[in-house]
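Sample pair:
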Amino acid sequence: MAIIKGIEQISLDTDGPELIPNVGIGIASSSADGTLHVHTATAGSVTANAGANDLVVENNGDGGISILGPDNAFQSLFFGSPMDTIGSILRWNHDQGTLELGSAKAGGELAFFSDDFVEAARFDSAGTMNVVGAITVGSTVDGRDLATDGTKLDGIATGAEVNDGQDLGEFTIAGLPTASSNANAYALATDASGGRTIVRSDGTNWKIVVVEGATVS
C-alpha cells in the first residue's frame, strides 16, 4: 500500500518503503519518473517523457500491461476529456473476435502515422480512406492478382472510364491505349468500319469481339 502525506510520497522497494519527495509513487524502485512508476528492472539510462508519465511501466526485457476480463466482455482503454469522457476507444472482445479502435466523437477521424510521425493514412467520418503514399498489395483484390492484372491499368487515357480494371472506356481507333500494356482489357472503338465495336487486347493487337447492334430484349 502506498501512503501519501502532503507532497512526500512512499516508494515500495524490496528494502522497504522509501519517501520520494515532490515526485510520485515508485513500486520496486527508489525513484519514480512520474505519478506511478512500476519498476521490474531498469530499461537503461532513460526517463519517461513528461507528456505521458502518469503511469510508467519499466522492465529490462519485454514489458507490458495486461487488461483481463471474461471472454464475453470488452477489455478497454478509453481516451476522454471534460467535453467527452469517451472520445476514442481501443477495446477487445474475445467471443466476438474483434479488436476495435476508433473515434467515438461525431465527425471524428482516425489517422495512422509512420516515419517521423508523418501521416500515412486517414479514415474520415464518412469512412473514406485517404492514403498518402502508394498501396502495395501482396495477395489478391476481389480475386485478382494485381501483380499480373495490374498492367491492365497502364496506359489509360485521361478521363477514360475504368470498370474493375478491364473496361477502359470509349476511344477512336487511333486513340486506343497501347495493346501491349493492356492485355485482356476491353474497350469500345467508336469509329470502327462496322460501327461501334467492342474490342479486346490480346497483348499485341486489339481484336474485334462484337459489333454493337440492336437492344437486347
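DSSP finds one helix and 18 strands in the chain.
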